[in-house]
């Protein structure tokens, strides 16, 4: 009896481990673009899910941004059907005139469509095909942007989304070369997205130019090191967040049209904790993510108070009133 190809064994094992966290009878959605990563993921789901009593649906999102995208989506769905899965193609409209650009708009549209299908089929989880290489690229991009520890944590293997759906990335420890080897060994027809070679996109430049140079000049293992960094930072952040939530319970009070925080308590904490409290309070109350500069301006109301007036922030304003920093909604 021929031995199982190592790439197939590795990816099936990763998917089996992820699915094992779900109860028997659960339903999942596998996001399938037709590329090697998502094809390998979907094929492994088709093999492993039935053995665990899990129902799986493959969903391909047609962004309609490229000529022939409908044919690509149809071919991906055909392969999912051949693997024994229910397959769906969902066409979305992408608003590429947004401030964040077409990449972000396409991602938002894709994730919303996946949420909708998950709700429709009663899926507990959506499985995404991001690999260790994607994680390394994400960390490096975050580092280049100076986006702070939150960005350097990269993508979480599992993320809950407002109790609606669990986003799972079973392949975050798997290299992209392994997903390609899986597809080759499984005779799957891989679609190579031309956008993945378009150097207008920063992620493509990181993938095709920056990471290869780092590997050449510093040595092999850069991608793995970046992924390990993300994992370690995520562990630290989870512990830090637990501390912050415990702190917030004691120092935050609801105020008219907003929320307030004790100046003395903020001042007594180190800068890292103080700044995280400020960001978390604003995010939880007003749904706004503050930049580092905005966060530091609010912190100055605590650490460098000289009677300055309110600070305008996205969606709210911050002002010092006596011994409290008061955040109120902007009208």
UniProtKB/TrEMBL annotation:
<dbReference type="InterPro" id="IPR012094">
    <property type="entry name" value="tRNA_Ile_lys_synt"/>
</dbReference>
<comment type="similarity">
    <text>Belongs to the tRNA(Ile)-lysidine synthase family.</text>
</comment>
<dbReference type="InterPro" id="IPR012795">
    <property type="entry name" value="tRNA_Ile_lys_synt_N"/>
</dbReference>
<feature type="domain" description="tRNA(Ile)-lysidine/2-thiocytidine synthase N-terminal">
    <location>
        <begin position="28"/>
        <end position="208"/>
    </location>
</feature>
<feature type="binding site">
    <location>
        <begin position="33"/>
        <end position="38"/>
    </location>
    <ligand>
        <name>ATP</name>
    </ligand>
</feature>
<dbReference type="InterPro" id="IPR014729">
    <property type="entry name" value="Rossmann-like_a/b/a_fold"/>
</dbReference>
<dbReference type="Pfam" id="PF01171">
    <property type="entry name" value="ATP_bind_3"/>
</dbReference>
<feature type="domain" description="tRNA(Ile)-lysidine synthase substrate-binding">
    <location>
        <begin position="262"/>
        <end position="325"/>
    </location>
</feature>
<dbReference type="GO" id="GO:0032267">
    <property type="term" value="F:tRNA(Ile)-lysidine synthase activity"/>
</dbReference>
<keyword id="KW-0819">tRNA processing</keyword>
<keyword id="KW-0963">Cytoplasm</keyword>
<keyword id="KW-0175">Coiled coil</keyword>
<keyword id="KW-0067">ATP-binding</keyword>
<keyword id="KW-0547">Nucleotide-binding</keyword>
<dbReference type="InterPro" id="IPR015262">
    <property type="entry name" value="tRNA_Ile_lys_synt_subst-bd"/>
</dbReference>
<keyword id="KW-0436">Ligase</keyword>
<feature type="coiled-coil region">
    <location>
        <begin position="223"/>
        <end position="250"/>
    </location>
</feature>
<comment type="function">
    <text>Ligates lysine onto the cytidine present at position 34 of the AUA codon-specific tRNA(Ile) that contains the anticodon CAU, in an ATP-dependent manner. Cytidine is converted to lysidine, thus changing the amino acid specificity of the tRNA from methionine to isoleucine.</text>
</comment>
<dbReference type="InterPro" id="IPR011063">
    <property type="entry name" value="TilS/TtcA_N"/>
</dbReference>
<protein>
    <recommendedName>
        <fullName>tRNA(Ile)-lysidine synthase</fullName>
        <ecNumber>6.3.4.19</ecNumber>
    </recommendedName>
</protein>
<dbReference type="Pfam" id="PF09179">
    <property type="entry name" value="TilS"/>
</dbReference>
């Amino acid at each position: 009896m021929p031995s199982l190809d190592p790439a197939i064994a590795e990816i099936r094992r990763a998917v089996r481990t992820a699915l094992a966290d779900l109860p028997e009878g659960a339903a999942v959605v596998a996001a399938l673009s037709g590329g090697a990563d998502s094809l390998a993921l979907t094929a492994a789901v088709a093999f492993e899910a039935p053995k665990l009593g899990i129902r799986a649906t493959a969903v391909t999102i047609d962004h309609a941004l490229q000529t022939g995208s409908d044919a690509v989506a149809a071919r991906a769905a055909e392969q999912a059907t051949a693997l024994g899965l229910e397959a769906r193609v969902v066409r979305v409209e992408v608003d590429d005139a947004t401030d964040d650009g077409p990449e972000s708009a396409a991602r938002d549209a894709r994730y919303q469509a996946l949420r909708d299908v998950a709700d429709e089929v009663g899926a507990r989880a959506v499985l995404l095909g991001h690999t260790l290489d994607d994680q390394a690229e994400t960390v490096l991009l975050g580092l280049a942007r100076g986006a702070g520890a939150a960005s350097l944590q990269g993508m979480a293997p599992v993320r809950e989304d407002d109790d609606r759906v669990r986003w799972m990335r079973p392949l975050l420890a798997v290299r992209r070369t392994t997903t390609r080897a899986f597809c080759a060994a499984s005779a799957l027809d891989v679609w190579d997205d031309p956008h993945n070679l378009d150097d207008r996109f920063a992620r493509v430049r990181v993938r095709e130019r920056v990471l290869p140079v780092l590997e050449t000049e510093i040595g092999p293992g850069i991608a793995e090191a970046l992924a390990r960094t993300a994992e370690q930072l995520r562990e630290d952040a989870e512990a830090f967040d637990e501390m912050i939530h415990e702190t917030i319970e004691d120092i935050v009070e609801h105020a008219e049209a907003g929320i307030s925080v004790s100046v003395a308590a903020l001042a007594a904490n180190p800068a890292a904790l103080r700044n995280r409290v400020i960001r978390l309070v604003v995010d939880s109350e007003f749904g706004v993510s503050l930049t580092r500069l905005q966060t530091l301006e609010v912190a100055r109301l605590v650490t460098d108070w000289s009677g300055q007036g309110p600070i305008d922030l996205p969606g709210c304003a911050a002002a010092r009133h006596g011994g409290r920093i008061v955040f109120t909604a902007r009208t």
